[in-house]
Amino acid sequence: MAPAYLLLGEEVLLREEFLSRLLSTLLPPGMETLNLEILSGGETASADLVTRCRTVPAFAPRRVVVLKE
What we know:
Blueprint: H1 12-26, H2 32-35, E1 36-40, H3 46-54, E2 64-68
Parallel strand pairs: 1-2
């Protein structure tokens, strides 16, 4: 798995479908509530994003931070 992914394109449905598949691959079942954060790019400060990305995962091999918009 790569440390970062950039999803671009006009087809929102395809982006969301790919993101769903990616998340199911990256996170063990049941670990989404502890290790997944979905943030809005227009409302998230860069320092806050960096802090969230550096947070250690809880009971899972990795943590996922999604920045939309």
